[in-house]
Prior knowledge:
Blueprint: H1 8-36, H2 46-68
Helix pairs in contact: 1-2
Transmembrane segments: 12-37, 49-68
Keywords: Membrane, Transmembrane, Transmembrane helix
Amino acid sequence: MANWRARRDVDLALRLAGLLLGGLAFHLSALLARHLHGHPAGCAGARDLLIATILFLSGSVGAALFFVGRHLLDEVRVSQRWARRT
């Protein structure tokens, strides 16, 4: 199979997945804000921490996929100074 990352439809699918993850993060932030509104600070339970963790991960991965797309796993040239010596 040819290089699958060079295809335009793969890039579009990755960027769309990033957009969907960003939407999920947006909805999770609204859910978390509604759930914690009116409660004193420091009363977050395990459910709130789980929602916040999923919010952070989906927002981070979604932004990376949306802005970088298929170039997320591109190889990068490293200077000789930082290259591994074998």
